[in-house]
Amino acid sequence: MNHFIIIxxxxxxxxxxxxxxxxxxxxxxxxxxxRRIVQEETRTGGHALPWIDIAAFLRRVITAALEDHANAxxxxxxxxxxxxxxxxxxxxxxxxxxxxxxxxxxQAHRYHPCVFLAPPWPEIYVQxxxxxxxxxxxxxxxxxxxxxxPVLGYTISVLPKIGAAERADFVLETLESC
Length: 178
Hints:
Rossmann fold, 52% helix, single chain, alpha/beta, 12% strand, 5-stranded parallel beta sheet
């Protein structure tokens, strides 16, 4: 879908801040499914958490991302920005289990051909109750995504390390030529 734009990349790289800025500008933004799952599982005492059962967590994220994609299809919005995507979770599950989820899910559910990746940004990286992994895991995740998206035919645009308003301008200007 040419109007489904992915903002992904390194954990703690400023994605959510960028998406909040895009939302303030009137764009439709879909929150990261992983954070939503962590919040729900924590609230209900569930075990599908990355630090308890990563495979169950990733399967829940895939289900949520599929629902997000289907819900966005019903939107008339000219652009829908996703905080991560189905591809992120499918790539992680495939790396963990060897299940061929990336190609199967990634080809069936398309997004805009240009994907924006937030690079590692140690100066702003923070752990919190929902992001318990360290910078090493975030770097491995970024490397996995740098490989996964091009394999599925997407072009990566790495976000510059600048303020949220400038990053939003960068994304919107890049989309005009992508």
